[in-house]
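thread: overnight batch results

M.L. [08:02]
morning all. the overnight job finished for the chain we discussed friday. pasting input first so we're all looking at the same thing
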Amino acid sequence: MVQAFYDPQFSFREFGERFPEQRTALIRCLIGDVVGRDMTSFLDALTQMTPPPAPLHEGIATGVA
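M.L. [08:03]
and the structure it wrote out:
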């Protein structure tokens, strides 16, 4: 969700228009009401509009050469 917020190509309005069935999930995500909920279909829809972030292990300096 943070990735979508900072993606200049992403539009919450367009997301809601393209995936109207995900509006409730979007609102739940924005207010933090996601614990114990299956957000798979929401995340799948979100991925169609903005690329997911890279895994945390990529690009982290480890100090090992």
